[in-house]
Amino acid sequence: MLHFKKGEAVEATHPKNPDNRNRLYPASVLRATNNNRLLLQYHTLFSDHPPNNPLRYSLPLSCVRPKLPDLLNPWFKVGDPVDAYCHSHGGAAWCSATVDDILENSRYAVSFWDEKGNVNTERAVIEQCRMRPHREWVHGYWVPPLPSQMDNNIQYTSSKPKKLKADETYKEQPPEMVSMTNTGNLRFKIKYSRRPLKESKFKKGRMVEVRDEDEGYKGAWFVATIVSSVGKDMFLVEYRDLLADDGTHQLLQEVVYEKFIRPCPPEVPSVSSFKQFQEVDAWYNDAWWEGVVLAVVNSSECFVSFMHNDVLRFESSKLRPHQDWFDGKWVMASKGSRELTKKFGDVMSKAKNLTGNKIILKCLKSLEPEPEQMPRILMSGSRNSSIQFASHLYKGAKVEVRSDEEGYQGAWYTAIIVNSLQNGKYVVEYLTLKTNDLTEQLREEADASDIRPVPPDIQHRHRYVLREWVDAWYNDGWWKGQVCGFACFRYSVYFWPTKEQLEFEHCHLRPHQEWIDGRWVHA
Predict the structure, then answer these.
(1) Closest CA to 259 of 282, 232, 225
(2) What is the pLDDT of residues 6-56, one digit of tens each?
(3) Are residues 404 and 283 in the same domain?
(4) CA 339/CA 350 separation, integer angstroms
(5) Pfam families annotated for this entry (predicted)?
(6) What is the C-alpha to C-alpha distance for residues 480 and 476, in angstroms, rounded to an integer?
(7) Is residue 442 part of a domain?
């Protein structure tokens, strides 16, 4: 039996009609109750008393299923079974339907199913962005299986890792390495084309960067989150650092063409100093601005020139090496002097004037950002007395934070740095953890020693091997473990501190990497 944890996103039937599993409403788990029931808080259903509050209701486990993972939205064919997100019985729900006709502007005519799964006379026109392939949840398996579900006859595990202590080693040998065998009668044969799948467009909830082409903002990339798709090549985005100008203090939302959107660049190993004429991005005025280093003041400061010819002085912690998003891949920028001049003006003359004129240097110092806007730089002496700069500790940086809470030692949680404090600590906002009332993202103070950059993404398409160290995604965080058994693309992972063994799918593991002396080292 699959156990749900507090705060987990699920889909549930309507409280007044729990037997109709062809109408599923998004909800979150508040807690388990007696007799195999769950107390849920619905996202689109609201109570009458008090009015406009999210509805809370206890349902049997049989009326609840996990949230269907985001799937690549294909162009559907007539007769395809789908789920359409639309208003039903007081709130928005995923309603089972069949495609009747393909219309213009990415819209479809669909017929809805009744409680028994038969097509009834109720019809509607639905936009493609509000549809998904239909999946059934049968005895703990998705039917048809998900693309990442290599074998559908493996049982889910519900046990929870106990205390994991950081930096603890053990001398005893791991348990006997054995291959896992599958049991059950439900099997599916999946055909895979040799042709690679085309990468999907940006999915809802994905963090991206948006380019602004307005006058005065050329070369600026603003961090945002995809809210929804609008037609074929436009998206509604919500900016992370910009507020609407209507006085509501709400984050700004805007419809943007796909050509102005790119993924967030991958993390680059820590850079303590930059080189002259190196192309960089500088964090300034709530955005990443493309620029070029004109002069290196010292190991921690540079003068940077931008497309609008402004020159500002920055600490290295507010810079990152510039990368170009080219043909669906990230390429480290490496331009010649002619290309740099075309993009940023006569950089040679600017650099010569900057380094040879003390008056200009004095004026430029007055243009540097205000001290309260500058991020704190962590300095720690190494054995050779050199100084290392933690360039990942700036406002808005995406990081991972180690927990020292009882029972969660050694778990790393993804977060955003919100602010730096005078005591050498930082305020972080977790991306996967919410407050106890589930109303907002959890914020905490964290010591710099418990913060590291997000590890670079390693596409581990082949199987993990026995005894390989991995990070396992569990309870909203990454936990270090060792592979001790496998079957197809499902693995048994052993956690040394608790001597506990859990099962994970391939997609829930990543190669383990250690952050040592400002760089990532593969275990």
Answers:
(1) 232
(2) 888 899 999 888 888 889 999 999 888 767 788 999 998 988 777 778 899
(3) no
(4) 15
(5) Agenet
(6) 13
(7) yes
Distances (CA, A) of 277 to 59, 291, 339, 466: 63, 9, 11, 46
pLDDT at 331: 84
The single-letter code of the amino acid at 215 is E
Q: Provide the token pair at 141.
A: 């398996």
pLDDT band at 66 (very low <50, low <70, confident <90, very high): very high
Q: Is the pLDDT score of 176 beyond 70?
A: no
Q: Are residue 423 and residue 285 in the same domain, yes or no?
A: no
Give the structural domain span for 47: 1-147
Percent of the chain with pLDDT over 90: 17
State the DSSP H helix or E strand holding residue 252, giving kind and residue range, or none if neither.
Answer: strand 251-257
Bridge partners, residue 37, by sequence? 33, 60
Domain boundary among 122, 147, 172: 147
Total domains, the chain: 4
Choose between 379 and 331: higher pLDDT: 331
Q: Is 362 helix (H, G, I), strand (E, B) or coil?
A: helix
- What's this model's pTM, rounded to 2 decimal places? 0.36
Question: Which position has the token pair 């639905």?
Answer: 126
Q: Give phi and psi for 68, each to the nearest 5.
A: -65, 125
Over residues 209-214, the mean pLDDT reads: 85
Query: How many angstroms separate the CA atoms of 16 and 27, rounded?
Result: 15
3-state secondary structure 446-457: EEHHHEEECCCC
Cα separation of 506 and 180, whole Å?
14
State the average pLDDT over residues 483-497.
84
320 inside domain: yes
> What does the block give as tokens for 269?
């190993």
33 and 108 belong to one structural domain: yes
**Residues 316 and 355 both lie in one domain:** yes
**CATH number of the structural domain spanning residue 422:** 2.30.30
Contact (CB, 8 A) for 27 and 10: yes
Is 102 a domain residue? yes
Burial class (CB in 10 A: 0-12, 13-18, 19+), 185: exposed
Q: Is the pLDDT of residue 444 over 80?
A: yes
Please tell me the predicted confidence (pLDDT) of residue 25.
Answer: 94
What is the Cα gyration radius of the chain?
A: 26
Domain annotation covers residue 43: yes
Residue 260: phi, psi to the nearest 5? -95, 10
AA letter at 185: N
* Average of per-residue pLDDT across 287-299: 87
> Could you give the percent of the chain with pLDDT greater than 70?
77
pLDDT digits (tens, 9 = 90+) for 86-139: 888 788 899 999 998 888 777 889 999 888 778 777 888 988 888 899 988 877
Burial 29-55 (b: 16+ CB within 10 A, else e): bbeeeeeebbebbbebbeeeeeeeebb
Domain end: 373, 405, 421, which one? 373
Q: Which of 488, 485, 489, 493 is nearest to 512 (CA)?
A: 493
